[in-house]
Write a structure and sequence with these properties.
- This protein is of the alpha/beta class.
- It folds into 3 domains: 330 residues, Glycoside hydrolase, family 3, N-terminal domain (TIM Barrel), CATH 3.20.20.300; 215 residues, Glycoside hydrolase family 3 C-terminal domain (Rossmann fold); 117 residues, Immunoglobulins (Immunoglobulin-like, Sandwich).
- 26% of the residues lie in helices and 19% in strands.
- The protein contains 18 helices and 26 strands.
- The strands form 7 sheets. The protein has a 6-stranded mixed β-sheet, with helices on both faces. It has a 5-stranded mixed β-sheet with strand order 18-26-25-20-21, with no helix packed on it.
- A hairpin with an 8-residue loop joins strand 25 and strand 26.
- Helix 5 packs parallel to helix 6 and helix 14 crosses helix 17.
Length: 700
Amino acid sequence: MKRREFIKTAGIIGAISAIPQSLWSSLSGLSDQDIESKIREILPQLSLDEKISLMSGVLQNTLKEALSGGLRKGQGHGYTGYTVGVERLGIPQIKCLDGPRGVGFFYKTTCFPVGMARAATFDPALEEKVGEVMGYETRALGANMLLAPCINLLWHPRWGRAQESYGEDMLLLGAMGSAFVRGVQKHAMACPKHFAVNNIEDTRMDVDALVDERTLREVFLPHFQKCVEVKAASIMSAYNHLNGPKAGQNKHLIREILKQEWGFDGFVVSDWGTAIDNTVEAANAGLDLEMPSAKFYGEKLKSAVSEGKVPVSAIDESVSRMLRQLFRFVGPDFEKGYTQEKIACSEHTSIAREVARKSIVLLKNQGNILPLKGIKSLAVLGKLAMEKNLGDRGSSMVTPPYAVSILNGIKKKATAIKVSYCSGFIPRSKMLAKNADAVVVVAGLSHKDEGEGHDRKRMNLSEDQIELIKTAASVNKKCIVILIGGSAITMQEWIDDVPALLMAWYPGMEGGNAVAEVIFGEVNPSGRLPIVFPKSEDHLFKFENKELKVRFQGFHGYRWFDAKGIEPLFPFGFGLSYTEFKYSNIRLSSKSIGKSGKILVSVDITNIGKVSGEEVAQIYVGYKGSKVERPVKDLKGFQRVYLEPGETKTLSFELKAQELAYYNASASRWDVEEIEYLVYVGPNSKKENLLSDSFKVKGV
């Protein structure tokens, strides 16, 4: 069940909340020692009933009150979910709101570009700002927990929730996800989701994801571990099964890996509604909080404890974990200093606009059609040009106070240009395109095509959009296509017909302004693809989104294309600019290091064009002579760098030998091989575009 379906029965929004910025490291102001002492003091005072009540959410129907005007101004629709707390002992409630692209659902909050777009910025520092804004707005609405970020990797481009993710690469997911967590937790608890191997929508409630231990450790878990390392307060379990048990009842996943190996000291919350189906299995596996209500916990959990099927120690551990985070984040001054007037303020929306600018990827610019200059008329075609197309309308839905469509953004910017528009009627579109100095076709996807609960049925555009693009391109040599969507789109039917192409994703409330700034040259595009764009879906493995048992094995994304020797349409990390960058002089600080050592890789980058711009330099590592199957290369780092025309800067990347390990499943450990490692540095994952060198790992 979608969390939106619970919103009408959620609790009443409390008073405006806040805490002093000086206490961000521990928002309550308590030290870790104080918190643990407080837990030891309070836990024995709780009855078993009270402990169990803390381990599940409650539902309260406020719809009637809301419709009758009973809710106070600013209370909106309530929370996505909440717990009861224990007032007599000063234990506060957990109060949740959703938020992958902004605080949802119907509050007038800041709507950012979707996660996939934000990943295209390759800018963790900016993503931390995004998290900070969402964290503030969460607290200002009275909640103390934001159900974000979504850090499930993109296994196949047709996954319905691709837009919520940060792409296909584990390192990028970890960098962006952990940055978001740091930002949110300056104000509230973050909740990375969905743990783990949650990569299909059509069968998400029932599918059993079959994954060998090495693939689980190397592909599906590293980004979650990065969020744990920055002290994420909670982790949300997934709906799907994992090697048999439901993910929320998987003892190996939750208790052994997350809590014991990684040392996670927060709590694990179920996804909403049907994420667990067995009381004893869930409690013993380490599922601490069932949401949004006690379907399998509550009285069933109390009975399981009475019958000796769940030890009291497991209950105490779960309660302690939630108390630890509540005492860490919610202090007595919780309601001090925040204001709802700052929600979606200019400071926040300007960050949304900055993200949109940096997320737009220039994929093609034949003849330097862009930026548009010296034109007097412009035709804008396609129904999506007029729509405020913000993305999915499931649990990630956001309702901003305004949203700028691409058409309105262009009209606002092009005050001296005659702008004509047609939604797609072919005869009129052809006439407008033929008579204009240039034509922009906006095409792509919407919430009807992809989203929570439904995977994409196709990777290419609809037939009517393909016809519109080909018609416009046939009568106007300055044809620019702007694509909207949450993942890769195939375009073999029309890509050779158009000279210019931009990927704008779902660009958020300020998206129309950002797109206009890019096409008219006020902003130099600097987005890079966080996923591969294939030439055809036939170049991918089958997307088994109708099967109830799916084996996740081998490679995906750019690693799949490398292994198969298939050339994609656009490689991972790809993106053009209005200027040009040159890489030179790669050098290594050493040609040999031990297994505990590290090496510094440096490279010079020069802006050899005529305008300033930002480049995203990427470093990959390959494995020569490995005794196990490994990718041709793995992303191991990236940096954004700003360069004026003619300017050269030296970038350095640190590689640690331990980061080159593979997971030895038979020995249950990470092993660093004593082999030669190939280093590649350049603008994207295409080997021909990369400088290379090598070093060896030998000894300790």
